Amino acid sequence: MVRDLSVPELVDRARQRQPRAVARLISLVEDASPRLREVAEALTPHTGRARVIGLTGAPGVGKSTTTSALVSAYRAQGQRVGVLAVDPSSPFSGGALLGDRVRMGEHAGDQDVFIRSMATRGHLGGLAWATPQALRVLDAAGFDVVLVETVGVGQSEVDVIKLADCAVVLLAPGMGDGIQAAKAGILEIADVFAVNKADRDGADATVRELKHAISLGRREIRGPSWRQPVVKTIASVAEGIDDLVTGIAEHRAWAEDHGEFAARRLARARAEVESIAVREVRSRFGEMRSDVLDRLAEAVRSGALDPYRAADDLIASIVDR
Amino acid sequence: MVRDLSVPELVDRARQRQPRAVARLISLVEDASPRLREVAEALTPHTGRARVIGLTGAPGVGKSTTTSALVSAYRAQGQRVGVLAVDPSSPFSGGALLGDRVRMGEHAGDQDVFIRSMATRGHLGGLAWATPQALRVLDAAGFDVVLVETVGVGQSEVDVIKLADCAVVLLAPGMGDGIQAAKAGILEIADVFAVNKADRDGADATVRELKHAISLGRREIRGPSWRQPVVKTIASVAEGIDDLVTGIAEHRAWAEDHGEFAARRLARARAEVESIAVREVRSRFGEMRSDVLDRLAEAVRSGALDPYRAADDLIASIVDR
Hints:
The structure is a homodimer.
Chain A: H1 7-15, H2 19-30, H3 36-43, E1 51-57, H4 63-76, E2 81-85, H5 97-103, E3 113-117, H6 126-140, E4 145-151, H7 155-162, E5 166-171, H8 177-183, E6 192-195, H9 203-221, E7 230-232, H10 241-257, H11 260-287, H12 289-301, H13 307-320
Parallel strand pairs in A: 1-4, 1-5, 2-3, 2-4, 5-6, 6-7
Helix pairs in contact in A: 1-2, 2-6, 4-10, 6-7, 6-11, 12-13
């Protein structure tokens, strides 16, 4: 039924809080449907409202538990919450659907919570391309807060989190975290740190180590005046989640006062346009396989043409058509 | 000294078997030097001779040991051998240089062996872009055989191996290999299978399982007439390596007879041209950051423009300049 609806009808229903319409729009986006452009056009007037919060951290730090606890906290404030899980190891994603259902059971049946795992494998452009498109759907559908959860590995996943309005980096004690985080380039993108599983041995040491790293590096890390808070949480029992929500809210206030909020949103739009353009270029290259690209490839294979000149010709050809 | 040479001088010296000139050319290519185009142009007339053999497999199957044993086997045939290790877990690569030196000690001082680990992190386009460029250098420098070793994880690494003249997929007993390999999409790209560590329990079972999978799947896997051989090896003591060399040679003969060799080379040229073009497009996008892209991003951020129209404008702008 939902399948038969036109794009404007789907957008209307999504804005009327119908989860099936939201899901359908995200699918159109994820599958790079031919109606993609129509979807983007229909969504655009309704976007820009949602607060985007990114969560990342190594496997085992408790990202999904923290996400779930944050969903509850924002719901208690009366906010509508969307979740995009782009973490392949997440119980929300791919294989581990059982864990997903069990854990997110508390949000089941809540029409104001929408949870989606992103299936980005095999996509041209991958995460960097698909995530902003899905975000745009949730934003237009009127979700007040969108939580984006990724595992803290891989450049494209770091890029996704870096462009959230607020990037929350999770650590857990006893994983050599402080140093590992710094190595992964994750320290630099954090707006707020949460040391989860804070009832475990070594939690205070991790907090100290982090605070020390922040005090040393803060000028390099981000602007002159934002000092990332370090919050202790035990997400499994919702302890410290209020502090985390406060930390995120304080960052929001600071970011708005210091132009960082607008700058981040501009950077996100830039990354989105660029990733769409690169994907479009690739797809135009793909379409001309049988023709221009084959001729150029044959010239390169035979040694008649060097590959850089061939690439120039290829680029020129996609715009002339 | 080598640093001060012109590109034509470097190419001359590389063709005279001077390893420092070869290394310098690969560095120019890897670092995306401004002289990249000049390098590609100077190399092109000398390329097309080298046989490219790809090796891949999960960590722990013995890729580097097998590579080293193959180097010895081809050297015994009087062939000059280049190695490109694009496996981040390889002892040839990155961190584990000690293992590299120890293991490849047997080839040290052999002027007809050149080993290089690829540092592709952070590159626009990554492996898919850098590897063909480095291959081109070794090819022009007169190496008869180039072995490309990658870990069998990640789409770009599979793509690299798929485009070799011969793709060797390594397995080892007792890792649930047959099924794992099939899952990773590696079964489809193999021209030759080697079951390494064949003295271990389960080797025969792995061979049987593989042969069964091949007999079931062969029409889908590749053409009607090539049935991938399954070779048992113990690379650490060079056992079975002659069989592996024979399997690779038989594949070569079949591929030449059936047009597969030319088709693969054309596909490689196509992928190379495409990856250079995508990289070039990205870099043109990057250069216009402050200008066109910012204006478009602002329009998208404010909701005045949908991101697909913005991407169209961006693409148009890079070719008009």
